[in-house]
Amino acid sequence: MSTPPSEDDSIAAYFGYAEIGDSPAEQKLQNMKRRKTRRRLYTLIGLIGTAFLFYASLRVIEFNLAELVGQFGQFYEALLEYFPPTTYFGIPFVDLGAYVSFIVEENLILSIENGRIVWGAMFVTMAVAFAGTVLGLPLALFFGVMSSERVVPYPFNFVFRATMSLIRAIPGLVWFLILIPLAGVTPFTGALAIMVDTTGYLGRLFTDELEEIEDGPIEGIRSTGASRSQVVSFGMLSQVVRQFIAWIAFDLEHNVRAAIGLGIIGAGGLGLELYIQRQTFHYTEMMACIILIFLLAGSVELISQRVRSMLRDDDTVETSGVLEAFLDSPKKILASTMGRRER
Description:
By secondary structure, the chain is mainly alpha-helical. The chain is built from 15 helices and four strands.
């Protein structure tokens, strides 16, 4: 008849000092307890480290809650200029006419001079983003393919991966500053900066997609005696055409926002107009620029989403237009919410 374990034996078992004669079940239990204790310890260390870094970050940025509260009055005055009040049919509302007047007077969308269409700041921003995306596509495709181990064996593919990593390490704003001696402070320089940025980010996405493709089609093409370039074209790229198009649409959406940021430092478009109005403290005009930015970025995002949706391998994909998708979105959100509640 076995004797029950003493308290000392239980403590030793908990910390892993059990004798060799313990049963497998007891050893498994001890290992589980040790892992649980280790996870708790790591979690505690992680929380303490995060709290310390957060506190240090607040000290570095000179965060001052009292000063922040003291600025609320000034911020409220600015809000009244961001959203100038008026009345419509006796009901208080935001003066939308002030925004429209500024947009029309400054020709932020387009104007006609001497029978010639002059594109406004909104189209300049879109042109910078679109031109930069298209210019960067060939380079992104080249680096994306050459960085894949399926095409270029390791470690030679690392040269192309390292190049894309270097590009991604430098923000698009910095690329714009680097390229100023080449093309000046112009929208064209902004397009060049977006081209470089697209090469690094889109190329990396292309590489990741190529690493996930099936080997079957590649072996099938190779068994027919196809050349290396034919294997890459018909055995590899043919499998990821839809994914590539979806990522291109997503990158264009990102580049529109990047073009706005580049405009603030001189690349033109809505970003430059926003910066000018900010420097002159014209908050109503600033909000008019922000409204156009919202409309432009939102439209590109909606179109991008529809393109990615149509490319999915799903029989339930909807083929309705952009306007129908926008009008039907509240109904779909409500239906989705009700469905989750029923489950």
